[in-house]
Amino acid sequence: MKPILLSLLNTTEQDITALSPYYDVISIKSLDEGLALPAETLERVEALFGAATRQVSIEFLDALPNLKVISSFGVGFDPYDESYITGRKIRLGYTPDVLNDCVADLAFALLLDCARQVSASDRYVREGRWVTEGIFPLGVQVSGKRLGIVGLGRIGMEIAERAKGFRMDVIYHNRNPRTDVPYRYVESLIELAKQSDFLVVATPGGPSNAKLINQEVLEALGPEGYLINIARGVVVDEDALVAALQSRTIAGAGLDVFVNEPHVPEALFELDNVTICPHIASATIETRGAMRDLAIENFIHFSKHGEVKVAVPWANYA
What we know:
The two termini are about 30 Å apart. It is elongated and about 70 Å long. The relative contact order is 0.14. The strands form two sheets. It has a seven-stranded parallel beta sheet, with helices on both faces. It has helices spanning about 15-20, 30-35, 40-45, 60, 80-85, 100-115, 120-125, 130-135, 155-165, 190-195, 215-220, 240-245, 285-305; strands spanning about 5, 25, 45-50, 70-75, 90-95, 145-150, 170-175, 185, 200, 225-230, 250-255, 275. It is of the alpha/beta class. It has two domains: about 5-95 and about 285-305, 3-Layer(aba) Sandwich (Rossmann fold); about 100-275, Rossmann fold (3-Layer(aba) Sandwich). Helix 10 (about 190-195) packs parallel to helix 11. The protein is built from 13 helices and twelve strands. Belongs to the D-isomer specific 2-hydroxyacid dehydrogenase family. This is 2-hydroxyacid dehydrogenase. Its EC number is 1.1.1.79. Keywords: NAD, NADP, Oxidoreductase, Pyruvate.
């Protein structure tokens, strides 16, 4: 009898065909639906297909006594408790790198939209205001400006690469400076914000980075600065950001992620200095396909070798 792979995602016929030599696949719509499965079924579960945007509780994991491997669809791994996963020696794989280009592309799309007011000007025309009010307000030039990146990892590096085409001066803030990049390191996040025309957040989520971009950082960014967030909603103090946009403490923002997705602060809907996307940074046919392929490959690799193909940084065991 094959072990069971429990999937929190919709699995395609292609997925099931690839996995069927190794697992019996059961898809569930929620953790509660999984917990309602018979005990003998839960005992057979050795693999879990999760996602970076789907929280997985310890209660749920406790109900899977023989769980050996998780493959998470996405680059974030904040839904998983590090001490719990490492304590049980569960192998945890994820899907980095294959989405770097698309996430960086969207970061720049948001940056350009904020500066040149593409979405706002589209609404201006559709509402007939070009006729009744005349010339649309001036935007801001992007070329030659200074780009501050919070988190110069895989995605941050791709964002910096795109900035070269706009002749931007790239500076960055990490926990520690990198010695392998040509960009200037700024030790203080407040100072990075002060020096930036555009501040792009590309750092991991999780409790350690919760509200990293707070009122003080936004005030340092200032009334001519723009915030772009393609990381995780929790990294930004959402209440402080709404207040900063309302008061024009900052010039504007481009947001793809939020604290309580899919719920977005309604106050943002009334503002023309913010561009809002429904967490679509990796949402292209090519990238989502590559992510799914790697997520499935993590399971197959584990079945053959006892390790996932790509493990999260803290889930590599000796």
